[in-house]
Amino acid sequence: MAKVLKHIEASFEIVTPSFAGDADKNRAKFRLSSINGLLRYWFRAVAWPEYEDLNKVKEAELNVFGGAGSETNTKKHAFRLRAIKTAIRGYYSPQSQFDQKNKLSGINYLAGQGCIHFRNGLQRAAIKENSHFILKLQFIRPVEEKEFNLLLKAIKCLGLIGGVGSRTRRGFGSLVLQYLKVNDQTAWQAPQNVEEYKSMLAELLKANNDTLPDYTALSKKIEWKIITLQNNNTWQNALDEIGKQFLRFRSYGRHGKLPWGEKAKQRFSNDHDLVYNFCQGKKPDKNATAPERVAFGLPHNYFFSSLGPNGRVKVTGTQSERRASPLFIHIHKINNKYYPVVVFIPARFLPDREQICLKGKRKTSLPLPLNLYQPIKEFLKTLPAL
After folding, report:
1. Distance of alpha carbon 158 from alpha carbon 152, whole angstroms
2. In this predicted model, what pLDDT tens digit does every residue of 13-37 receive, in sequence order?
3. Distance from C-alpha of 165 to C-alpha of 266, rounded to nearest angstrom
């Protein structure tokens, strides 16, 4: 098979605030190591439908990104990654807010308590939106042409549905790819309108494999939507609206109300009752399964203020503390308009035979729901699509 030795240039814009950095929550920073990890992640995602064999995916990943294989098969990166230009517009500091009144309930919900407190503002620093960077991937040894093309596809995924930093699956740090060059020749240009973007997504996410992947990867089972908005002139409007849609679908409400006063639909009242009864010492029914909302990712926490110290429950796997959400929320910018994009990438949720653990003052284990991903599919149906 033919091998190639080329270089790639890719330009990105950060269109929503990015919680990028390290353990220091008071300082956000752009890190090439994070970008390299993201490229590696998306490479694995696009490689699965090409090989449908974990060992072959690992081999291709090793050839491109380097690392330790067997004792006799250790490779260095096939390319050098550097930023040939960075234009960071500034930073949000802790305790600052994305709006003066901090009333963006949807944004607050998507960020979660680790990043935003509904009263105190940001809990960690963030890179401001409208920041830019250009990457150069200079290959120093040849790779298979198929592997090179998979890397190009991974870059497109990062810049069409991905992001950088914490909470990227909830719309923060959304990246927009502006152009791709190969050997200084334009290889791809950004869509000029939403119809072009839709066509690009359809082509990018197309896959022929019909079985559920072992890990988050492309398959025929992917579902996605670009969401219609009355006002998409700012990233705040776009992210807040999809956040409210998400909160509206999932929330039981406080005293039956959502933060902006709307009556909560309480679609998952069975989840609420199951965990509430567990907090009160009641044993789940023998046919009970885990809360349906675990499908959106783990851990999945509950707090019932009326029960005091006994009202806190952490829901995880019996062996796995975390399971990233299979639902990706992305904000894409086209001609200064902002479009929420929701992508469902299903894969095996937990290792075989692993159950869900409810941890409060005591513990109990429950099997996963039979139709695990049905709530996510129902959520997608509620969204108005372009």
Report:
1. 10
2. 999 999 998 888 899 999 999 999 9
3. 31
| Token duo for residue 59 | 């081999």
* Encoded tokens for 208: 């022929």
Band of the pLDDT at 383, cuts 50, 70, 90?
Answer: very high
Note whether 328 and 163 are within 8 A (CB).
no
pTM comes to 0.95
Residue 269: both structure tokens together = 């009242």
Distance in angstroms (rounded) separating the CA atoms of residues 281 and 279: 5
Amino acid letter for position 296:
F
Is the pLDDT at 248 greater than 70? The verdict is yes
**Cβ–Cβ under 8 Å, residues 91 and 28:** yes
Residue 73 predicted with pLDDT over 70: no
Question: CB-based contacts of 155: which residues, under 8 Å, 6+ apart?
Answer: 8, 10, 39, 42, 177, 180
Q: Which helix (H) or strand (E) holds 152?
A: helix 145-160
At residue 98, the 3 state secondary structure works out as coil
- Bridge partners (DSSP) of residue 135 are 10, 83
Q: Is pLDDT at 100 greater than 60 in this prediction?
A: no
Which pLDDT tens digit goes with each residue over 338-362? 999 999 999 999 999 999 999 999 9
> For residues 42 and 25, what is the distance between their CA atoms, to the nearest angstrom?
26
**Distance of alpha carbon 81 from alpha carbon 139, whole angstroms:** 9
| Three-state DSSP state, 182 | strand
CA distances from 142 to 1, 3, 37, 42, 114 (A): 12, 6, 21, 20, 43
- The pLDDT of 364-373, averaged and rounded, is 97
C-alpha dist (Å) from residue 297 to 17, 118, 165: 22, 22, 18
E-only strand ranges, the chain: 3-4, 7-14, 67-68, 74-75, 79-87, 91-92, 116-117, 121-122, 126-127, 131-139, 143-144, 175-182, 185-189, 223-226, 300-303, 312-317, 327-334, 337-344, 356-359, 363-366
Domain boundaries, the chain: 3-190, 225-382
How far apart CA 334 and CA 338 sit, in angstroms, is 7
Say if residues 197 and 332 touch (Cβ distance below 8 Å): yes
pLDDT band of residue 196 (cuts 50, 70, 90) is very high
